[in-house]
Amino acid sequence: MDGAARDNDISKIVEADRAHIWHHLIQHKPFETNEPRIIVEGKDMRVWDQNGKEHIDGVSGGVWTVNVGYGRERIANAVRDQLVKLNYFAGAAGSVPGSIFAEKLIEKMPGLSRVYYCNSGSEANEKAFKMIRQIAHKRYGGKKNKILYRDRDYHGTTISTLSAGGQDERNAQYGPYTPGFIRVPHCLEYRAQWDLSGEEYGRRAADAIEEVILAEGADTVGGLCLEPVTAGGGVITPPPGYWERIAEICQKYEILLHIDEVVCGVGRTGKWFGYQNFGIKPDMVTMAKGVASGYAAIACLVTTETVFEMFKDDASDPMNYFRDISTFGGCTAGPAAAIENMNIIEEEKLLENTLAMGDRLMANLRNLSEKHEVIGDVRGAGLFCGAELVSNRSDKTPADEKMVQAVVADCMAQGVIIGATNRSLPGLNNTLCFSPALIATTDDIDAITESVDTALTKVFG
Ligand SMILES: Cc1ncc(COP(=O)(O)O)c(C=O)c1O
Q1: For the residues 75-101, what does the mean pLDDT come to?
Q2: Rounded distance from Cα 317 to ligand 1 centre (Å)
Q3: Domain boundary assignment for the chain
Q4: In this structure, are residues 71 and 344 in contact, taking their beta carbons and an 8 Å threshold?
Q5: Which atom of ligand 1 is nearest to the CA of 299?
Q6: What's the whole-number mean pLDDT along residues 326-334?
């Protein structure tokens, strides 16, 4: 069989997958008897699998990535044109799409001014950690090197980003971890650690971070890394008052505030960036998934000019610059795709659509919670929502993980892809996750929540 014939024979593709592919995040034993899922094609909000079955994608490519939807020819064409002209040159030199995208991006991020390109969210976060560590060495005799991260947050898959990971099931069995990462408490009011609510709860949760800083010694803490809305840890939207207090604390103790926008960045919450919902001024922002909606691999670490200046203040010192590279940070496909991705969001007014459709998604989920006792909490921002399932509303006992997964599987059988927290937190993998593309229509949103309604009835009665 020649290559073209084989490529058109889907059974051969499935066979090759079974024989050779090590899929992400999945136990492979079931593939000995069942076919792995292969996604063959996508258009707008929909994808088709190897059997030609159509699905509405309620999670933008599984992991909240394909923000502008599938099948965007103008992105593909822009990437093609750029690759033919120049596909790559190492990032010590600049590139045309790199400059253009950086300028467009910085226009959306007042107070920030420098873009460092790399190619995954984990890598961007690692770069931020390296900058914080190098600043500690340059300015504080190496002492101010600790990096705080929050319970339930996730920052990536490498050993150091796992060391900054607040999800114990995700981290387990990958130690020993990188030293110098210190955990601070989460801020999920639904599972409150303090008997407070609203703004008081928000300020208390931030004060708990200050307590850790004081216990560690403020002169040893260089950075605080937080997700604006905790994603895989349960779609946790921060309580009011939280971020204002966080900003005060960082300023008071000269701690760099690093916001991980890998999920929220570029539109997911209805603002360009999640942190812009809270009026704060980060020192560093990392982003990846939605930057080019998965049309090319690109991640960015964006910093203030103040941070940038710290790496060029003494040019006579041969060690005094950021001695870091990302080989594929020099690929031009990423910024070429990111420019078109951003143009689409602007031209099609997708931020506005995200807010309107996000309201509809939240309202539909809240309506469902009146019918289904199992929905304990609904939370979200823009087109990024979570529904936490509990077996008992009064004591908030988390629903059995297998039943939560059964809801996801039933939706899939109905042709609707939703997500759920998965191998993140012991006993707390009980939140259904929704992150449809920013192009979603009311019909799409209603179809997603109708399938959840049907699935909840089937699984929980
Ligand atoms: C908040 C957050 N940060 C970082 C990452 C890691 O990104 P990547 O998988 O591109 O390395 C993820 C991935 O899901 C994430 O959700």
Answers
A1: 98
A2: 35
A3: 37-68+349-460, 74-347
A4: no
A5: 10
A6: 97
Pocket test for ligand 1, best of 65, 153, 155, 261 (most atoms within 8 A of CB): 155
- Cα–Cα distance, 450 to 368 (Å, whole number): 9
Rounded Cα distance between 104 and 338, Å, is: 10
Q: Is the CB of 243 under 6 A from ligand 1?
A: no
The 10s digit of each residue's pLDDT in 40-73 is 999 999 999 999 999 999 999 999 999 999 999 9
| CB-ligand 1 contact for 120 (6 Å cutoff) | yes
Residue 3, pLDDT above cutoff 60: no
Q: Where are the beta strands (DSSP E) in 238-330?
A: 256-260, 284-287, 299-303
CATH class, range 74-347: alpha beta
Q: How far away, in angstroms, is 122 Cα from ligand 1 center? A: 6
Closest Cα to atom 9, ligand 1: which residue?
A: 121
pLDDT of residue 314: 87
> Count H helices, E strands: the chain?
14, 16
CATH fold label, 37-68+349-460: Aspartate Aminotransferase, domain 1 (3.90.1150)
- Tens digit of pLDDT for each residue in 133-185? 999 999 999 999 999 999 999 999 999 999 999 999 999 999 999 999 999 99
